[in-house]
């Protein structure tokens, strides 16, 4: 008799993502994932493969529903200065609002996962490149409209904004207070003045 799912896969992925986000990949055990998702071991493996496969699926879900969706929303504003301002203010707001100080799942992965896992490294690098591309496009469009200073080299500015973003996310994991995080965000916004 073929195996039939008796659970919602998206809900299970969401719950597994929370386990990985709370504990990190290395510290999350199969027992933690079973408890967190409410699935039994067989259902977990049949639906998602092993721990690493499940992790990659949760990372893809997070990236699609969080980073990609947010960037699409900001690009739709067609106002690069406002998009960059909302981006950095939003990052600070999200970071402060998280009582568990979990940080960004993508940034956490870049810090935790070993460099020898090429697939994960490439996934994270692609996400960071896309953020850099968003920042670069904002700078270029703003410069073309005369809204962002022409002396800012777009690629350098974009890389700097990525570094400031990662800094906010890392500091937000419990080291930085709201004023520190906002100071970094304000510096990001000053970069484009």
From TrEMBL:
Is Aminoacyl-tRNA synthetase a UniProt keyword of this protein? no
Gene3D superfamilies given for it? Homeodomain-like (1.10.10.60), Tetracycline Repressor, domain 2 (1.10.357.10)
Give the residues annotated as coiled coil.
Answer: none
Task: Point out the DNA-binding stretch(es).
Answer: 29-48
Output this protein's name. TetR/AcrR family transcriptional regulator
Which GO MF term does the entry hold, naming one? Answer: DNA binding
Matches recorded under InterPro entries: DNA-bd_HTH_TetR-type_CS, Homeodomain-like_sf, HTH_TetR, Tet_transcr_reg_TetR-rel_C_sf, TetR_C
| The HTH tetR-type domain, residue ranges | 6-66
Name the PANTHER family for this protein: HTH-TYPE TRANSCRIPTIONAL REGULATOR YJDC (PTHR47506:SF1), TRANSCRIPTIONAL REGULATORY PROTEIN (PTHR47506)
